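Lab meeting, item 3. Inverse folding demo.
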């Protein structure tokens, strides 16, 4: 096994809330999958959970060395929750192709959030 990359990101929860208020469903549909939206909307403060997933996608794209853009898009990464509570990353589209190109066998994320900030770390392993 070898390390493909690591990434980290921090997001202000208020920034996500502002985008939700200003752009509504259009913003959510551009950044988050249906399953991510369903999960977040069931939570007491959805913006905190959206912010954590936003940070995770940024962290994953940094770990790939691409950032969000032409190589990896927002909807190419999905952050779900296992029954154990552990976050689970599912890649599709361009992100799945990037993972194959880099021989990535595992993408792991750690999420955290508070009243004001959400953060995520990502580690991508090859082999």
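The presenter then showed the designed sequence:
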């Amino acid at each position: 096994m070898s390390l493909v990359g690591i990434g980290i990101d921090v997001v202000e929860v208020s920034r996500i809330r502002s985008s939700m208020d200003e752009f509504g469903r259009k913003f959510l549909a551009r950044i988050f999958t249906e399953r991510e939206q369903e999960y977040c909307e069931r939570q007491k403060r959805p913006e905190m959970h959206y912010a954590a997933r936003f940070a995770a996608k940024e962290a994953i794209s940094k770990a790939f060395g691409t950032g969000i853009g032409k190589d990896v898009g927002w909807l190419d990464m999905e952050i779900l929750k296992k029954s154990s509570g552990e976050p689970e990353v599912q890649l599709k589209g361009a992100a799945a192709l990037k993972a194959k190109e880099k021989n990535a066998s595992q993408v792991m994320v750690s999420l955290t959030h508070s009243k004001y900030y959400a953060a995520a770390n990502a580690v991508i392993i090859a082999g």
